[in-house]
Design brief:
Layout (H helix, E strand, L loop, with lengths): L4 H10 L11 H27 L4 H23 L13 H36 L7 H23 L11
Helix pairs in contact: 2-3, 2-5, 3-5, 4-5
Length: 169
């Protein structure tokens, strides 16, 4: 099956180079991903606060966090040229292999985090008789967000620096 109009539009959006200066170097990409991680942590905490508190301020904070979170997500997606957003038929063989590598590495990282969390929780319950009532939903939600965004972060960190073309040529 050939590329649809949607596929071609998404490909064009993901391959625009106007914003390349924001992610041209590894240091800039690491900074954007670090900011994205912090915004994600703040958004998760705020969203959980909205569920647990009967107050207006968490909703206002969430509205303030959303635009920079969306912007940084777009910058990371732009740096990967839509590696995780485009359909497979729009990617070449090298990109398909890279997408598989990114997903595999993200899966291993998430598995490691889950093993560490389970071991830490088990040790706390077994050794210190700690109880975690009321913590199951927030912990599961945090794990869901981590599972959802880890491939994006890994893909952004794996992008190679581009050779910026000299405009004098």
């Amino acid at each position: 099956m050939g590329a649809t109009r949607y596929d071609r539009r998404m490909y064009a959006i993901m391959n625009k180079r106007e914003g390349a200066v924001l992610y041209a170097t590894a240091a800039r990409r690491r900074t954007v991903i670090g900011v994205h991680v912090l915004l994600t942590l703040a958004a998760v905490a705020t969203w959980l606060g909205m569920l647990l508190e009967d107050a207006l301020w968490p909703a206002l904070v969430m509205l303030g966090l959303l635009p920079p979170w969306v912007l940084t997500t777009g910058i990371i997606n732009g740096s990967t040229r839509g590696l995780l957003e485009l359909r497979g038929r729009m990617l070449d063989e090298r990109q398909l292999v890279e997408r598989d590598r990114v997903r595999s590495l993200a899966h291993r990282i998430t598995t490691g985090v889950l093993v560490a969390a389970a071991a830490g929780t088990g040790c706390a319950v077994w050794l210190a008789d700690v109880r975690f009532e009321g913590m199951l939903f927030p912990a599961l939600f945090a794990v869901l967000v981590l599972h959802w965004l880890m491939p994006l972060w890994v893909a952004g960190l794996r992008v190679q620096d581009e050779c910026l073309e000299d405009s004098a040529e």
